[in-house]
Structure formats: structure tokens, C-alpha cells
Design the sequence.
């Protein structure tokens, strides 16, 4: 049986629009994510996997039994089907830049979209590689279709090399990771694994065992709407109340654009409404739960201070828990990280432990009972028209997975 290479797979996957929506209450939030799930289901069946199913929630699950007679663990490899709601994933037109020469890459001359080395110094380490970008009008979709391609390539290797030692394997592709709901309808009874690895990281060699703790806040501001021609001493403009709240936020600190590494933030990311009512949605991030509480209390104090200037306005302050730092769980299972580091080293790469300034399905899975760190996929500039991935790094991600499974099988 002939199977496509990792590049061919990746290009096909990114050609399918799977953008999720954070404005939808359905799950999955967009039906088009299931189109890719069904395509992958067909590929996995052709590769000889069993129990291959796309369930009612759009999760794709499949199994590959061990080829050893001894008792071995079951390892889950996971990636997500959706792309970010922030930038269009429709009609992606990948550009392939072979033997990259280290210079700026013009993605769209018409739109003035340029991948600049001065703003992306990591490009200096990519000279000679094959880089893949979008044409500057959409994102590329390497987040997380590079991860999907790496997993599918690893499974293809196992199918072609049936004597290569492997544990029991579960493949799980999830919808709606980008909306923070990726494992909302996934149970451990369906996962059927002892340990897991998401393939949703970025740079070559990185392994991430720590995420933000994450909450969101919905601040609903209620004014009083009166015809503007008869509004004196009657109208309370919720738009102005919202503007006042945003103006009171820290200007040079505690925002995504002013923080890095282990610094958290308070981020207003959506505003909607009118004179009568405005909804502001905030992302609250910190690596500790007390840090989250500090930022939420700051936002609450700002809101109360602003509301004192608009005594007839009303507000509702709602905190919604998203996920927690997975390091709390992973520190109790050091073998999961140890195996990953060994696999990366065996693949000729220097392991680089990193923290995720974001979240993955693995964060929630850890607290559901599946210790799940995050492995690199090779992608960069996620959620952006400047997104790119190196073909060689995707290939290395696939090799790491093959070596990782061998280590678990031979323990």
C-alpha cells in the first residue's frame, strides 16, 4: 500500500477549512471540522487501525494494538482539528520555500505581508530548510495540522515497519481546542490510555510541561437607553461605561503586549453591544491560581471604581474557569517527561523544556487523569498570517513520536 509523505499530507490538511468559532454554542462549534475528522478516519482505516470512530461530538478516536507479547501501557497521541477563530482558515494557499536563504520572505506583495527576519530571528536557524507559509491572506494552519501530519506520518511508519516495538496506541483528534473546549465532551472511558502527548507545540526540540492557569471574565454593563434628543439627565451610555473600564486597565503592564515568559496578563479581547448593554470578555492568565485571583480582583476593583462614576448603571461580573497549570499533575509522573526527553535526544535533537503561554487539550486532560505534556510540531507564529513551519521539523516531530513509542514499549 502506498501512502503520502508528510508534506503531501500537511498540504492536503491545510487546504480544508476547519476554523472554529468562539461565537457558537454548538459542539463542535463549526461543522466543517468534522470534514477533516472523516478524512482522517478513512486514512486511519486504510492504515489498519481498529476501533476507528468519529463520534457524535466530532472526536476522532482510533486504536493500534501493541506488537509485543508482554504487558505494555497504552499511550495516546493527540492533536486538534480546528484552526484559530482569529484569522481566516478558508482557501489557504500554501507557499513552499525550498532551500531557504535566510532573507525576508514576501508572502503578499499586494497586502504588504512580509515575514521579516528582524522580527523573527529564529528564521536565522532555518537556512537550507524547506519552509511552508500561507500566501499572506490567511493563516497557514500548522496549528495544529502540523501535529496531525506528524502523528499520521508516525502511524504510517509503524504500519510499514510492523516489527518496530510499540505499546498500545490511541490516536485522538479533537475539535474546538482553539475555543478552549477541546475535551469538553471527551471522557476517560473513551480515551482508554495511561499517558498522553499532545503534538501542538512549536519549535524543534521543545517539550512543554507547564501551561497558564486560565480563567475568563464576562463583564456585562447595563445602561439606560433614551432617545438622544430627549436624553438629558436620563440616558446612561453603556458604551461609555465600557470605554471607561478599558481606559482604567494597566497601560504598561499585565497585558499580552507587555508580558513574556512566566508573567501573566489581563486581556480584553472582545467588546460587543450598544448604548443599553455592552459585554466585555476578558482572558485572565497566570501560572498560579493565586496570580489569577490577583488579576481578577484588580479587574473587579476597576469595575467598581468606574461604576461609582455611573451610579445609575448596573453590571454583572462573571468568572468562568478554563484550565489549570498541568505541571501540578505532571510532576507526579516524571516518567512521562523523561521518556519524551529521551525520545527527542534519540532523534538527534537537544530537548528544550518550555512553558506554554497558552493552553492545550493536555492541560485539562491532566486533571481528568491523563498526564499529557505537549511536544513540538515545528510550527511558528501561530494564529497569524505570518505562520510558518519547516518541513524538516515536522519530519523530526514524526521521528520523535516513533522513538517515544519504542521507549514506552521497551521499558
Sequence:
Amino acid at each position: 500500500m502506498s501512502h503520502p509523505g508528510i508534506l503531501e499530507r500537511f498540504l492536503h490538511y491545510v487546504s480544508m477549512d476547519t476554523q472554529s468559532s468562539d461565537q457558537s454554542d454548538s459542539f463542535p462549534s463549526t461543522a466543517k471540522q468534522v470534514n477533516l475528522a472523516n478524512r482522517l478516519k478513512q486514512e486511519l482505516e486504510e492504515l489498519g487501525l481498529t476501533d476507528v470512530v468519529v463520534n457524535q461530538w466530532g472526536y476522532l478516536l482510533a486504536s493500534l494494538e501493541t506488537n509485543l507479547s508482554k504487558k505494555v501501557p497504552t499511550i495516546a497521541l493527540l492533536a486538534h482539528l480546528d484552526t484559530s477563530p482569529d484569522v481566516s482558515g478558508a482557501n489557504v494557499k500554501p507557499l513552499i520555500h525550498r532551500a531557504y536563504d535566510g532573507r525576508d520572505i514576501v508572502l503578499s506583495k499586494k497586502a504588504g505581508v512580509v515575514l521579516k527576519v528582524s522580527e523573527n530571528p529564529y528564521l536565522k536557524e532555518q537556512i537550507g530548510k524547506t519552509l511552508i507559509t500561507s500566501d499572506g491572506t490567511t493563516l497557514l494552519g500548522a496549528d495544529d495540522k502540523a501535529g496531525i501530519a506528524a502523528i499520521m506520518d508516525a502511524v504510517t511508519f509503524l504500519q510499514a515497519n510492523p516489527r518496530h516495538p510499540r505499546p498500545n496506541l490511541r490516536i485522538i483528534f479533537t475539535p474546538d481546542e482553539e475555543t478552549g473546549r477541546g475535551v469538553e465532551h471527551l471522557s476517560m472511558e473513551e480515551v482508554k490510555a495511561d499517558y498522553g502527548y499532545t503534538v501542538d507545540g512549536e519549535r524543534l526540540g521543545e517539550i512543554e510541561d507547564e501551561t497558564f492557569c486560565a480563567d475568563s471574565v464576562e463583564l456585562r454593563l447595563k445602561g439606560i437607553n433614551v432617545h438622544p434628543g430627549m436624553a438629558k439627565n436620563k440616558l446612561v451610555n453603556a458604551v461609555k461605561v465600557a470605554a471607561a473600564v478599558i481606559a482604567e486597565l494597566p497601560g504598561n503592564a499585565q497585558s499580552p503586549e507587555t508580558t513574556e515568559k512566566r508573567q501573566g496578563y489581563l486581556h480584553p479581547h472582545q467588546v460587543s453591544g450598544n448604548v443599553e448593554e455592552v459585554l466585555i470578555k476578558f482572558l485572565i492568565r497566570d501560572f498560579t491560581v493565586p496570580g489569577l485571583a490577583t488579576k481578577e480582583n484588580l479587574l473587579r476593583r476597576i469595575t467598581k471604581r468606574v461604576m461609582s462614576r455611573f451610579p445609575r448603571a448596573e453590571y454583572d461580573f462573571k468568572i468562568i474557569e478554563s484550565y489549570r497549570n498541568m505541571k501540578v499533575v505532571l510532576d507526579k509522573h516524571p516518567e512521562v517527561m523523561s521518556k519524551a526527553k529521551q525520545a527527542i535526544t534519540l532523534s538527534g535533537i537537544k530537548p528544550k523544556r518550555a512553558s506554554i503561554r497558552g493552553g492545550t487539550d493536555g492541560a485539562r486532560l491532566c486533571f481528568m487523569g491523563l498526564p499529557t505534556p505537549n511536544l513540538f510540531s515545528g510550527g511558528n507564529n501561530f494564529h497569524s498570517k505570518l505562520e510558518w513551519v519547516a518541513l524538516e521539523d515536522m519530519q523530526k516531530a514524526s521521528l520523535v513520536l516513533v522513538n517515544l513509542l519504542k521507549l514506552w514499549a521497551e521499558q
In short: The longest strand covers residues 213-222. The radius of gyration is 23 Å. The CA atoms of residues 102 and 125 lie 8 Å apart. The first helix runs from residue 6 to 14.
